[in-house]
Amino acid sequence: MNFSWLSYHYPFEETLAEKRDTILSLSASASIVLVLLQPFGFSPVAKGFYLLALLVTGTITLFINYVGFPHLFPALFNESRWTIAKALIFLTYNFLIIGLWSHICQVIFVEENIFLISSGEQLYSSLSKTVAVMFVASAFYILIRYNILTRKHLQIAQELNQVQQTSAERPTNSPESELMKLNLENKEVELAPNDLLYIRAEGNYIALQMKSQSNAPLFRTTMTQIEEALTSFPEFFRCHRSFIVNLNAIASLKGNSQGLFISVNDSTERIPVARPKIKHLRKAIANKNVG
Hints:
Helix 1 packs across helix 4 and helix 4 runs parallel beside helix 6. It contains six helices and ten strands. The chain is 48% helix and 18% strand. The protein folds into two domains: 4-149, no CATH class; 170-287, CATH 2.40.50.1020. Strand 4 and strand 5 form a beta hairpin.
């Protein structure tokens, strides 16, 4: 059996809205499995309080782990290295925690015997049942979300490529001779806007990728500071927390399950577009030569 799909890139939930949707979707999926299939003899009518308690504790557990862990360990949840396998492993960990709550809820609402809370056999039963039910629900959810996002971002990429082509055919209103004057490390640096392809964050530095230069010069400053310095040059758009791209240098856009990626002229760099930035990028591309 081919399991290569487990290594496919998968988007980790980037915004609070995406995390909220995932948490609610997983909780709803698990509820549907419990109510419709009634695994392990579960009866939602007879054990309504158990179901409610399990949903509440499960939702809280998912919220804490999806919001707290990426904040404490950002390197572990780097989206560029996040895969379907990692998503399933992370979810399995969540399910084990939820299984502990399931054990407690079952002892209180089903068995009605608080002394069984220390029962190893009862705990093993709760863990195995919870993981089995929720693993099926999460695998179903992940595969559906993967396919939906892939189709969605491919379609958006096609639309933006059309917008980009239409915009590129319009004459630019920016004078070719106009130079950007940037104050970098207490020095005034003059650059021709069309020569600057993109800016990339490098820790406490930024790299200015110039046309026909393989080595990007580094300057000690922040992306926020350089973004503010470029406010009078609307062709520069911050598409990601680590990238500012020259809209006039865009060659094409491509999409997959993780989102959109920009290819620029004279460079092999694949520049990511943060999902919340997609609609703003569309507007920026459409209006870059207007006004």
